[in-house]
Design brief:
Blueprint: E1 5-9, H1 13-25, E2 29-33, H2 36-46, E3 50-54, H3 62-70, E4 77-82, H4 86-94, E5 99-103, H5 107-127, E6 134-137, E7 140-143, E8 148-151, E9 154-156, H6 160-171, E10 176-178, H7 179-187, H8 195-213, E11 219-222, E12 226-229
Parallel strand pairs: 1-2, 1-3, 3-4, 4-5
Antiparallel strand pairs: 6-7, 7-8, 8-9, 10-12, 11-12
Helix pairs in contact: 2-3, 6-8
The structure holds calcium ion.
Calcium ion binds near residues 11 and 54.
């Protein structure tokens, strides 16, 4: 198999060097870009498996870069931003980024996020040509055609809203979904409900899944941002 190719978009050389050195230890291939314009060009020409995108670039807003890439590709994009930029993270995720890393981040954190994104690419590839009616993730199983959910082989009874929430998260396994995105997809518009009721639905859903799985965590909460379905498979 070819080495996974990562595009590092970062105008701070010290950070870019650290990321590059980390990728070398794992035998990943990489390209570097220091501006938004270069990033878009490299994304088109080298078609990386994952883009690591610094949101604070000199020439272009990070969200604009995500929109440009999303207009022709679903390649995973992990945004990298400073802690004070929560609002930017949410806009980046809403524009189609998959995940985020907050500076300063550890090498382990960086590698873990990359593995999640690369797994998502591989799973997407495997699904092509096979419209699967069953979702399996560790002990969790969703039978879409029957509309049933099982954990460890026993059926878990969900309300219609909980079921919709679960299917949305499952369809986007590994990806962080923002509150706004979830509200829009499940309730039709972000004003139809609000974040606090979403939180209540999620808490109930998580309790039901974790009770039957003996505490295995499926849904990860990102405070102030949204939720992610973790991949508990192999
Ligand atoms: Ca920067």
């Amino acid at each position: 198999m070819n080495k996974p190719q990562i595009l590092i978009v970062e105008d701070d050389n010290a950070v870019a060097n650290l990321i590059a050195a980390t990728l070398e230890t794992q035998d990943y291939a990489y390209k570097r870009a220091q501006t938004g314009a270069q990033a878009v060009l490299e994304a088109v020409s080298c078609k990386p498996d994952v883009v690591l995108l610094d949101l604070g670039l000199p020439d272009m807003d990070g969200v604009e870069i995500i929109k440009k890439i999303r207009s022709w590709s679903a390649m995973p994009i992990i945004v990298v931003s400073a802690r004070s930029e929560d609002f930017d993270k949410v806009s980046a995720l809403d524009a189609g980024a998959d995940d985020y890393l907050t500076k300063p981040f550890s090498v382990d954190e960086l590698l873990a996020r990359l593995r999640v994104s690369l797994r998502r690419v591989r799973n997407d590839g495997a699904r092509v040509g096979e419209e699967s009616s069953v979702y399996e993730n560790g002990l969790l199983k969703i039978d879409y055609s029957a509309g049933c959910v099982f954990v460890s082989g026993s059926e878990v009874h969900l309300t219609p809203i909980e079921y919709k929430l679960l299917c949305l998260l499952a369809k986007n396994t590994g990806k962080v979904l923002t509150h706004n995105y979830i509200l829009k997809e499940v309730w039709g518009s972000p004003t139809a409900s609000d974040v606090s009721s979403l939180r209540v639905y999620m808490a109930t859903l998580r309790r039901k899944l974790e009770k039957s799985s003996g505490g295995v965590q499926y849904i990860q909460t990102h405070i102030g941002i949204g939720y992610r379905m973790l991949n508990n498979g192999k």
